[in-house]
Amino acid sequence: LEGKISNFEKMKAQHSAVGLSPAKWLNTETGFDAWRLDQERRQAQAVAQKVLYCWAHDHAGIMLFCGRMTRGPGRDGRDLGLVDYQFCPRFAYGAVAGLVSVLQGASFESVIVEKDGVFAYEFLVGEERVVSAFSLSDEGALSFESDASQVMVCDPMGNVVRQIAGGDVELSLDGYPQYLVFRDAESVAISE
Contact at 8 Å (CB) between 44 and 76? Predict the structure, then answer.
């Protein structure tokens, strides 16, 4: 994501310099080589991060590059895809499925934070406010305050792992986006 942000800023500046602002963007850079287990995990993190970042920055769309890897067992070359040669879901498929399960029908509301490798975005899903947050490192935490009656903390797959009465919650972060669902909330903010 760091390289994507840097390149995106350069492209926006170039478009602006020649009078093409505001531009609409369609992102196609979501593929990863994943031939080791650690790369599978990183691919799952990065694909979900890129989808969230592109959504927050008003890209017209994002193409999940190489949905199915094209070579069977004994293959050589790159190993890309959301599903493998036999259509078995890979880690990245699970991460995107989790994102869709939580944010289906959502509209983007605001960037809460994009600083020091920590990202948090706010969405509206019906009457609920949903925050997705992640860190580019394996460490990080954010505290949120809100006027919500209840907060549901969801794991990267969209499963509710705990419910909190009231609107204040602390979230430990890593590379996988996690989700907070705020019920009956008018506002959500980072608490200092």
Answer: no
46 in Cβ contact with 80 (< 8 Å): no
Q: What is the rounded CA–CA span in Å between residue 134 and residue 121?
A: 9
Residues near 54 by Cβ (< 8 Å), separated by ≥ 6?
25, 27, 62
Neighbour-count burial for 101-132, b at 16+ CB within 10 Å, e otherwise:
ebbeebeebeebeeeeebbbbbbebeebbbbb
Residue of 129, 159, 132, 172 whose CA lies nearest to 147:
129
pLDDT in tens, 101-128: 999 999 999 999 999 999 999 999 999 9
Task: List Cβ neighbours of 24 (8 Å cut-off, separation of 6 or more).
Answer: 58, 59, 60
Q: Which of 17, 16, 13, 45 is nearest to 32 (CA)?
A: 45
Q: In what order do the strands lie in the sheet with 178-183?
A: 107-115, 118-125, 128-135, 178-183, 150-154, 160-165
**N- to C-terminal Cα separation, the chain:** 26
Mark residue 66 as left, alpha or beta (left: phi above 0; alpha: psi -120 to 50; beta: remaining): left
Written as one letter, the residue type at 136 is: L
Instruction: Name the residue with tokens 């069977």.
Output: 72
Question: For residue range 1-32, what is the model confidence (pLDDT) as tens digits?
Answer: 777 788 888 888 888 888 877 777 766 666 55
